[in-house]
Design a protein that fits this description.
- By secondary structure, the chain is an alpha+beta fold.
- It contains three helices and seven strands, in the order H-E-E-E-E-H-H-E-E-E.
- The strands form three sheets. The chain has a three-stranded antiparallel β-sheet, with helices on one face. A two-stranded antiparallel sheet has the order 1-4.
- The radius of gyration is 18 Å and the shape is globular.
């Protein structure tokens, strides 16, 4: 089995069409892995009826204060999800950085692609507070 077949080819995410060829856009290799990681981390466990265990339980951390315990739980959740559902990689490190005053965290994931023995980094933004794009400025009532 050569590298490209192991790394795979799949639909781009989100699915999109190429206007020139009217075909579905496909991604291959390391781009496919990066999109797979995003898809895994964005999918809530139980949201797919045919694969109820697929996804990551990150939504349980929404509205929780980020302390050392929550950081460790998030890291363990992400590592276990990637171990279970992304067999093409070995996670070497996972770290968390708070942004927007703690309303969002960025998960930094360092991984090794097994087939090619190459190292990559992936940053995944995770909102801890719903509606973080809402303005906090006071608004005049009509």
């Amino acid at each position: 089995m050569h590298g490209s077949s192991f790394l795979g080819t799949g639909w781009s995410f989100p699915p999109a069409f190429d206007r020139a060829s009217d075909r579905l856009r496909m991604v291959s290799g390391e781009s496919n892995i990066k999109q797979s990681i995003d898809l895994l981390l964005r999918t809530s466990v139980g949201s797919r009826c045919l694969l109820p265990a697929f996804g990551c339980a990150l939504n349980q951390y929404i509205f929780r204060q980020v302390d050392a315990t929550v950081r460790a739980e998030i890291i363990a959740t992400v590592k276990q999800t990637l171990l279970d559902y992304e067999p093409r990689i070995i996670v070497e490190r996972t770290d968390i950085r708070e942004v927007d005053g703690g309303a969002m965290i960025e998960l930094g994931i360092g991984y090794l692609v097994k087939q090619t023995n190459t190292r990559h980094n992936h940053v995944f933004p995770f909102s801890l507070v719903e509606g973080t794009n809402l303005s906090t400025a006071s608004r005049a009532l009509p």
